[in-house]
Amino acid sequence: MNVPSSEPSALTVNDSESGTRGCSVPLVGLTILIALIVTAIILGIGFTLTHDSIAPTVLQLSPADGTNLTSSNPHIVVMATYNDNQSIDAKSVRLVLDGLDVTSQAFISNDSVSYATDLEPGLHVALVQLNDASGNQVSRSWRFNISTPQQSPTIPTAILTPTPLRTATRAATSIAPPPATATRVSVAPPVVNFSASRMVVNRGDTVVLSWNVQNDEVTFLNQERVNSIGTRLVTVNNTTTFHFIASNAGGTTEKLVTITVPVIADLIVTDVGVSSSNQILYTIRNVGSGDVTRPFLVQVYVNGVLVDSSRPFVTLAADTESKAVTSNYIVPGTIFVEVRVNPNQEIQESNYTNNSIIRTLGPTPTPTATATHTPTRTPTYTPTATPTSTSTNTPTLTPTSTPTKTPTSTPTKTPTNTPTRTPTITPTNTPTNTPTRTPTITPTLTPTYTPTKTPTSTPTNTPTLTPTHTPTNTPTNTPTPTPTVCGLTTTIQSNFNSTPITSTNTIWFNSVIDVSGLSQPTLVEFDNSTIQFVANNTIYNLNVPGASISFSPTISLATTIFDATSNHWVTTVPLTSTNRVFLTGVAFPVPAGGLPGNINPITWSGRFTTTLVTETITTTATVTPTSTLTPTATSSVRPSPTNTPTASVTPTGTITSTTGITMTWQWAAAVYTQFGTNYNMLGVKPVDDNSRSQYKNFDPAGTPENFKQFVIAGARGDGTTLVGNYTAPTVPSPCLLKSTSLKGSAPSSNTTKKNLLDDMLDIFSKALGK
User: Alpha-carbon distance 546 to 397, whole Å?
Assistant: First the structure.
């Protein structure tokens, strides 16, 4: 019996434990849920207690809003006090006075900002802006007036007190329509526009600021009081923020515009010349705002041929320059030099359009050309030796004593052998014997010592002096007058359209040429250029820069630069270019009072010269010995100890026909609201072609690419044509086209070859008119 009774007891205990475990699971879940709810409530309460959604409060303004101060030269402290439930972000505090941000000069604390300054009489507007630690922002503006003791304070007080106006507005709403004046001043003046023509510019660029504000009483642009509507041209050298603030009795409106100047280098070639050692000397300048910290490539071309490619500059700080020379090249004569900096754009620049310059150079004058003309030595030796020898030997020994003393050695053989051997021995023995005796004996002892010394020297010296005279004078005088210029001018008359031009604008006069039929390198030059017209009873005569256009078979891209030293536009164009090419241009700032429309006539005149040059030099030895010269001939010939070989060289220049070449020119004019004074900064496009220059577009030749966004209607343009409408094409006089061919001969002697080449280079330079 005991055993059965104990079993149910055990079963009961097991059932009870099982039920307890089943109930524990929901109790744990309920506990977790309650804990989460409590946590969320606590977090919500904490967030509510800690979150700040209320902006700071501006407590006091000084001088008070609407105050009129009377003082001859007041020292004013502009101040604002403030507080917040939490804390003020002192870094966010800004104070603006009359449009100028003076925060950097103000004293800022956690409860106030103040700025002390001397202010001129007149109306002034101040604005304070700040954030609290939660980012809530508050902005307040106020106005005060400063009048001199002679001014009545009642007038500005009536204008500046906003309370009566606002009260009148509220009262009138239930009775009658509010007055128009009360409506205008009930709100701050709306700024319709405040913008800049460009937001990112290069250092030193100009930018146009424009604005339009309504219902304002006073408006400031960076502390300068301005009209409600206007524009302003500013030059930006660094990233700058311009403040525009407009105010009336209803409040103040502020607008900001920031012009960014990237901190980037900008390399230009400022000068190219010839050093004292006849090397090409050039100057590179970094006009950008960033430093160059690593080497960059510089290339030097002479007449289209690369003569130097190196990295002479390791670093170049902003706004600094450095010089270098082409150490492996000596300037031989007149040359066209182009220096290109950073051609592979391995250095990042803000402007890649100003990285080359072209100059026409010649070697520095050396004493060779001046000192070798022995006129300086001839008077030195002749007066010294001649008076001494003449006084002693000439009267006594000239015809008589010589046969008496000299025949002792060989009285008979000397006269017979000398004439016979002269033609044979002269070409062989002259280089050895003559050079030493020519300068010492011939010029000094002209009529006396010739018979006295051994007669062998007399015929030796005679043929030496004859060829010296021939190569010295003939090459200099013969080819020089050959390449003549006709001197005729070409003229195009046209007119402006009916659009008047205001005095704040600039007229871009530009011209182009179109040349066809070229088969060899050609140089087109344009000079004596002027523009004449009459407007407002005033005669205008504008001098236009000259132009040099080189058509070269060795280049593929056209370039144009302005050489300020010679006042010339220098353009290089591929020989096969078939489109219009920029010729020359001049910027004319419109004078005060402006110009009317329909100006007629406008006359542009100038002179063209087109030169085709072919150089042919042959080296053939031609010796012309002469045995019949008498000693008297030596007195009129300057001694030349270096040009001993008896060579006869006569280079000649000839004018050849230029049939097959046709050329026309045209001009145009457009008006720009902004324009640069540095022609190399305009970015003038050299050709019409969209692939033959760095400007891959369809703009016409002569377009100022860096300013084309500022073109407007006027002159010969409608506001869309970047250069204006062209005049009818005009063909210059054919006689202005010339061609020069240089030919000559020279002996095979190395010394004479060098002298001949120098002469040829000189003739070549003169043929080009340089």
Answer: 67
